[in-house]
Structures are given as structure tokens and as C-alpha cells.
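One record is kept unedited as follows:
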Amino acid sequence: MNALLQTVITRGSRIRAGSRIVTGSRIPARSRHHTRNFAVASGARCSYTTSLDTVKRRLVVDSLPAEREEFPWVWLRDNCQCPQCYESLAQSRIVNLAEFNINVKPVSVKNDGSKIEILWEDGHLSEYNYSWLLHRSFSEEKRSRRREILTRKSTMWGKDFQSKFPTADYHSIMTDDSALLGWLEELDEFGFVLVRNVPVREGPVPDLQKRVAFERLTHYGPGYTVKVRPDPSNLSYTHHRIFFHTDLTYYEHMPGSIFLHCIEQHQGKGGETMLADGFLAAKLLKEKYPEKYKLLSNTITYFKDIGVDFTKYNKMNQAPVLVHDFRGELKRINWSHFARDSFFDVDLDEVEDVYDAMRTFDDILNNKDNHIRLKMEPGDMVTVKNQRILHGRSELEGGVSGRYLQCGYMDWDEIESTVRVLRNQTKQ
């Protein structure tokens, strides 16, 4: 069998009886010169030919003037779009890998300009929209572009952010989809947005969570409040200074965002919210102290939270301070001195080195060049990306305080999902 079976579009809007699979080593002159133009989704005009590479086991799509796309046969069979293989409303496969031969071969391929049709040796017929295929290109350039679309673009910041951090209006977010999208996109990029003009009462945090998607419930309960208490189960319920931290490090599945709504502020000195970009701090650590960065990326730390609040709880988690994804990109920071356990699963000879690395990271966070401070007023809501932005609070001087916040969490998956939905609505 020849390595290349080629089909060329002939005149007319459909494949006609005269169109054929060419199995010879040479494409006939008449077929070779009678490709035709057609419109793709972008509105551009182009021509293409389809062929089967029997050596590499791929469908080859050559677009004029000189762009080639290749699609493995097994991938094409797995992604057949016919009703027997794919439920279009659910956007889901309904055929398992075990239900077809992954070494299946096509018998023929033809196209009519807008779609490509493949007949498989088992008799199954698959049809693919040309634009749909190009959108799923295997070329490195287009796969890289796809990764960029799905990758969160972070703009890191230090003390200069104090005068230019983004703000959003609560009423606009709640009533205008474009304002909702704008807030969430800035929250994604910068990790912090101050929402203003929030009604000064309990309730806006749960309402905002519902506007986006739904709440991430924790053992602190739904729409939990933060006040100074005589029997604190958490340091935030005291007047003490709260160090820079990410919330809920003792959860394996850490919430992706926090909303902190100020209903009443401390009237004396203190009570300032402190915010630091953990990704910037990690970047500075890696540039100046790469070995310390490596230690914090590879040393397992224990985090715990034990007590009674909305429910009795005994949470424990084991994770490095700096967590990376499968591509090696920093994706999560576990940092909480008051949640870090006294159990230390580290070789004796490494203990002092790990403490030195932690102290260095802490010094970077506390450096005035690397964080901002603001004292929320009633009606302000601090919204942050919890796995990136570290927050804290200065001491409530005087000990007694009426400071009163309502808080809540959301999973970042839900926020990302809503962003995509809103973007698609905007395109339509």
C-alpha cells in the first residue's frame, strides 16, 4: 500500500461521484489543479486537501498556501462527533476506549470543504468540521497558544501597588455582568481587589458568592463572622497581631479566594489589613537564594487546626510551603505560622537550614518594599486570591475592640468557570 492516500476538493459544493480516493503514487493532473476556495469561521478564504499517511497513521490536512496539520487516527476515532459516539448537549463521549480498536485504520477520507468524512475499517463513519479540527491543532505553536489562554496571567506587585490597587463597586458587580467580569479578571491578574460601597450589615458576602457561583463551606460555617471573643478558637478572634498567612493551609483542597467585609472597624490604633504578593516574594527568594527556594519547595511541612466552631474539627495537612504544578510553575503558597504544626518531618541535619529559609521568606514578606497596608472602613470588602496573596492584620491596640467582619470563601474553579461563561456571553 502506498504511504499517502490523497483526496482533493473538486468543483461543486459537495463531493460528487467523480471525486475519489487516489491510491496511486501520483495525483491526476485534473484533480491536482481543481482545488477550490471556501469560507472558514474567521471569514478568510482558503483551500485545503486531505490525505492519509499510512506510515505515521495520521490524517494530513494541507491548507494553501503552505500550512500542514496532522491528526493521529486514534485521536480522530476517540473524538468522533457522531451521535453514536458523542452526546452534543452534554459535550461528552459516550463510547469508551474499550469499545473500539485503538489501532483501527481508515478505509477512505473525503471532504466537501466545510467538513471531513472518514470511513473506518470497522464500518463506522466519522465526520469532523474543518474549523473544529483546526482549533484542536497539534502544532507546537497552537498548543502553546492554547496553554497561554488557559494559564493565569499574574501581574506581581510590591509597595507601589498602594496607590494604584484596583477597586470595584459592589452594586455594579451585583447588577452588571460586565462589572462582574471586570472585577473577577482583575482579581485573577492582581490577586487583590478592594470592593467598595458594600451595604454595612451581614449578608453581602453570601450574596456576592451567589452572584459568582456558590460558597465554599468550611468548619467556620457559612458566612462566618470575625470578632474579638473571650474564648477564641482562632487567632483572628483575638486582638493579637496576625502574621502574613494564607488561609486554611490545613486543607488539602485550599479555598481559592477570600472575601473580608468590614461591618465595624477598630476605633483605636491598629487593625490595618496587610497584603503581600506571595508570588513576588517567592520570585525574589528564588532569584537571590535559589537553594532556600528549593528547600521550601521540597520540604514537607505539617499544618493543623483543632477546635470547635461551626463543628468540631481536627484538620491536618502535609505540604511544602511552595507548591508547583506539573509544568513546574508556582501555583500555591502554604504559609501560616499559627497553623504550622510543631511536628517537623525533617532530617536533623536540615532543621536549621529549613528555619533559615523560612525566616528569609518571612523577611521578604515583611520588607516594606514588598507589601501594602490599608485600614478598611465599614462598607469595604477585601477580596483576594488565597493561594497567592498573603494577608495579615496589625494588633488591635487597647485589647478591647468592636472590629467586626463577615467573611467567606470560594473555590477558584468556580470563579474561573464564571469568567469563561461571562466571556463567552460577551462574544455572543
Observations:
- The chain has a mean pLDDT of 87.
